[in-house]
Amino acid sequence: GGRVSLKWEVAPDWTVNVEDMYQELQANGTFQYDPKLGDLKVMRFSPDTNHDQFNHVQWSVEGKLAGLDLVYTGSYLSRKVDQKFDYTQYASVGPFAPYYICSYPGYAACATPRMNYIDRSRTTRFSQEFRIATPTENRFRVQAGVYYDKAKVFADNIWYYEGAAVQGFHGQRPGGTVKVTDYVRPDGGVYFNDALRGESQFALFGEASFDITPKLTLTGGLRWYNQQTSLEGSVNCGVLGAPTLPNGHTCGGGNYAVSLAGKSPSHEKGTTPKVTLSYKPDNGLLFYATYSEGYRAGGFNRRGGTGNGFTVPYTYHSDSVKNYEVGWKTQFANNTIRWNGSAFLIDWTGIPVSVYAPAISNSTFVINGPNARIKGVTTDLVWRATPEFTVTANLAYNDSKLTSYAGTPAAFQAKPTDGPKALTFVPLGSPLALAPHWQGGIRMRYEHENGSGTTMFAQAGGQFVGSSFTSTVKPANFKLGGYAQFDTSVGVKRDSWSAELYVNNLTDKRATTYISNGDNIDLNSTIRPRTIGLRLNYSM
């Protein structure tokens, strides 16, 4: 990859900034392992590959006009991802796999169960923002702006069964009336998606600050948004022999344009407020209290409809948060200590949760799950003990609990009679997924500059993460143990160059960050093993 940036001072008060970043990643293998097979070992039946390429351009224009600060920013992202994953383990749990490999009418014998998941996705995103602000030295200050964002994601997913190809399943074009990409998929493509997801948003925002006294400031803001999400395309099933339909064969009403017609609240509007009261008794102290609200856009499920008595929703709506926060920013002891922190309470409603339930649908779907309340404290400290020795530390406490099932479907609400393998949300009072109670870190750095202007440095640090759970859905809520990780480095720098020798994960800790069980096999995701490297930097 690479990055290039340009800054142009058009006039004394006007600048133009442009930056372009390009990256191409080629990865082989999987980032999970099966602890039953041994350290960092996994059983796969065909190679896993990932080719990820993106280009991101962003720009800004900043200037002053009639005493006002003007800022215009924009960006454009183009990304291409081509992936292939081994999918063979699905044959042990997938209800349809044996049918297409062994028992489809006319088969003489079973074929190989080897399978792959092939993903081709293309993403584009274009965003713009314009802001105008009054001078910061005014007692009453105003900032206002407009924001626009539009994204498209094309998804071409193929579930390829090698055995089905051997048995005579031919490639075909997507079915239905909506075709995002009309080309013949490979033989053995038992299922494939042809979909285009879209999201656009227009927003107006404004914020005003008033200095009640030289030390006390009240700030209030509003953001109005108008957003729209869309999905078109089809879900397709393979056909033995020549396709029986002119345009292929859709699965169970799989044409998105038809199945979503009249069922989608894809257009949402709303307003989110923010209010902050800050107090600054002197230059080294700041205290504040904030109330704010936020949300994330909803979306669509690939396949909606009824399965085994449960109706998979075609859409899920936006979630929302209400945040109450108090905090402090301090600097004292002749500016050798900086201590910041905050305490917060968050009410989170309509949490979207992914569910994989083959008995209901062979496609993962999303529903709006329980509500939750999160309480916590975060703090960080920087201590310059001597001009050459600095200590940096941070600590966070997080207490999250599910508070109600709210609009969650009754079939997923946990009951006292549910067994350990029941497919439900965890009981009320349980913590959120991947939310440890405690985490933090500490780092110590020593720097010494000799008489020739060369600086030598060394640092060591560590971080710890408490235990947590992988999900709020049973039986996939595995417990993750806490762990500590350490790293160290030594180096030298002079003028415009530097060299650093580093060791990350010094003790080669095999900490588990996630456990998946999609095909009845526990696979662990872990932190990167011990890594030793040399980092060189030169600035022109």
Structure notes:
This protein is mostly beta strands and 540 residues long. It has a 20-stranded antiparallel sheet that branches. The protein has a three-stranded antiparallel sheet with strand order 3-32-31, with no helix packed on it. Strand 29 and strand 30 form a beta hairpin. The longest helix is centred in the N-terminal third of the chain and has 7 residues. The radius of gyration is 28 Å and the shape is globular. The chain starts with a strand and ends with a strand.
Shape: globular
Structural class: mainly beta
Mean pLDDT: 91
Question: Tally of extended strands?
Answer: 33
Largest sheet: 20 strands, antiparallel
Number of helical segments? Answer: 3
Q: Helix content range of the residues, please?
A: under 10%
Map the helices and strands.
Elements: E1 2-11, E2 14-28, E3 32-33, E4 49-65, E5 68-86, H1 97-103, E6 115-133, E7 140-161, H2 162-167, E8 169-170, E9 189-211, E10 216-237, E11 239-240, E12 250-255, H3 256-259, E13 267-282, E14 285-296, E15 299-300, E16 305-307, E17 310-312, E18 315-316, E19 319-332, E20 337-349, E21 352-355, E22 365-368, E23 371-386, E24 389-404, E25 438-449, E26 455-465, E27 468-469, E28 479-480, E29 483-494, E30 497-504, E31 512-516, E32 523-526, E33 531-538
Antiparallel strand pairs: 1-2, 2-4, 3-32, 4-5, 5-6, 6-7, 7-9, 8-11, 9-10, 10-12, 10-13, 13-14, 14-19, 15-18, 16-17, 19-20, 20-23, 21-22, 23-24, 24-25, 25-26, 26-29, 27-28, 29-30, 30-33, 31-32
